[in-house]
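Exercise 7.
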Amino acid sequence: MTDQLSNLRDLHSVKLSQGRLRPGLLFRSDDVCTIGPTQAKSLQVQGVTDVIDLRGHDELQATGRGLVSEFTQHHHLPLVVSDQSGSYSALRQSEGVLSAQQVGQWYFHVAQASTRSIIQGLGVIAHSIGAVLFHCAAGKDRTGIFAAFLLSTLGAPHT
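Solution. The predicted structure, written as tokens, is:
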């Protein structure tokens, strides 16, 4: 268990076509299920009421829901391809260092295989009564894919 998330970010600083998000409304992070009581209390004080968990079923079983389950609604919406051979780690093991094009193709593959989860996650955000935090294990690839869809939907420029 760690007391601090290493990749927690508030998305309020992203420019949108119609201004910016209100601070404290949307957060992305690494695995929020491994934090200690101090960070959990901080998220509660910041108004986080919903957690969108983008990890696979095996990852959820490994670390559970964590302390945030005491004050949030958990939405398990995995952004994973259907088999382990299509995972990012399997691709890296078979290919070694990946080119930007290979990573982009993997992102596309994950997004295509996870359309239902992405749409459900956008619905969770639209209907939440408080702040929403979405995460995967490291808060990078799958969280970034979901963030791209979310921010595109909200009118962020495609740069």
